[in-house]
Design goal:
This protein has 59 residues and is mainly β. It has one domain (3-52): N-terminal domain of TfIIb (Single Sheet), CATH 2.20.25.10. It has one helix and five strands. The chain has one helix at residues 3-8; strands at 19-21, 26-29, 34-39, 42-43, 51-52. A hairpin with a 4-residue loop joins strand 1 and strand 2. The longest helix has 6 residues, at 3-8.
Amino acid sequence: MDRKLLEILVCPVCKSSLSYKKEDKELICKPCRLAYPIRDDIPVMLEEEAREIPPDQDF
């Protein structure tokens, strides 16, 4: 994941910054508890494509 791209991407729901979870190929929004997939090195920044992170799961 390109660092410059990561710096400018924000959660489309709450506009918070995202963290990159390399092993799962996801961008994580901690306030929304959403994980946006990265497919073919392209972040899919659609709310309907995001995975909800269960409350008992750590980031």
